[in-house]
Amino acid sequence: xxxxxxxxxxxxxxxxADWKNHSRTLMSASHALEEASKSLQENVRQQQExxxxxxxxxGTSKSLLDRLMENAESAAEGLWxxxxxxxxxxxxxxxxxxxxxxxxxxxxxxxxxxDAAGDVLDDLGNxxxxxxxxxxxxxxxxxxxxxxxxxxxxxxxxNLGATLNSGGLYNPHVLDDGTATAGEPIAVxxxxxxxxxxxxxxxxxxxxxxxILEGVTMAYGDAGKEGTPDAAIRIVxxxxxxxxxxxxxxxxxxxxxxxxxSNPMDTVGNLSSASGDxxxxxxxxxxxxxxAGISPDAPVFLVGHSQGGMTAAALAASAEFRxxxxxxxxxxxxxxxDSTRIPDNIHTLALQHPNDVVPRVDLDNAKPGPGGLPILxxxxxxxxxxxxxxxxxxxxxxxxxxxxxxxxxxSVQANExxxxxxxxxxxxxxxxxxxxxxxxxxxxxxxxxxxx
Length: 452
Fold this sequence. Notes:
The chain is an alpha/beta fold.
């Protein structure tokens, strides 16, 4: 099979040449196994004959047992020598075959039909997870989770149908969240002023909650710039007396589309997060944090607006993510996170403007009830929810203005020194992320991407 394969090229010639030696070693091991088997069968036969005839004295019986053990040891030594030779060369075989199979599998898995079929299985798995959570916890999934999960499943089935109808040549990738990618961290200056000629604006000093929210605004502006062609997050590191602490600033949706592209912070990412799944955007944030070298013990403060807040909450709710990073604080603003189960040991603050409809699109974690009527349920995220004062001069029906991320930063600036926002800010877990000393702060920006 090896020599008659259609595989050609230098790698093929090298593998076929190496295979001659590997096949000889395999045959030697095979012969050793065969001889050991024959010897073992013969000793078993002799022992059975002795047992049927009543058996000789203890001395003869012991002699047969000794012979059995000696032959087994001899066979094992021969087999071990043969396997040792095989093991010496097996690494080359495994590496060559593994690389070839891996490359082939990647090509196959990314072909339109397997890719589309895999998306259907993934979406079915997500709905199945919601059902499993219901059976194990007794709490049904929210209406939002069911609606968005069902929508994604219908879209993936449609993608598969379109792919099959095209003869396997084209997958439209409608509402397909793809695979996460993340770029290497790029250093950006920290301070009140942007360095002239710099590709990216400076990150504000993390001296207040309002400044941290302004950092998220800077991350919005990073999309489409050098090194961050898709979407971006900013990571601020504060060197405190107990070691580094990291603020991860996550912006919200920057593209509105149903046919997903390379930017994971889009309509597809919103639906994926709302379904209770860990979106590609969330996975990309985790990859970016890993590339930034955040240690498992360093405290992490996840801050996000809109979809960025959904991403922050989803990561904090992920046991796998918490095993990799030490999430101590979450601040989500303008974000629908009522259905996200965040552990109560993570200090969580959820901010919303009174006329911002986006934090309410999860229907306050409403569950399906008898006759299809919704049943209100308590939030699962253990967050302190604060409704900020209304925005002066902004109409209640102005959806964009009430959801605007710079407006949230201004509202926090006016209210962070009193009430529950001040309590969150002054908590020791949050204080680890504040400083006025520029020498203690560094900042990076990382691209978030999606592949199909």
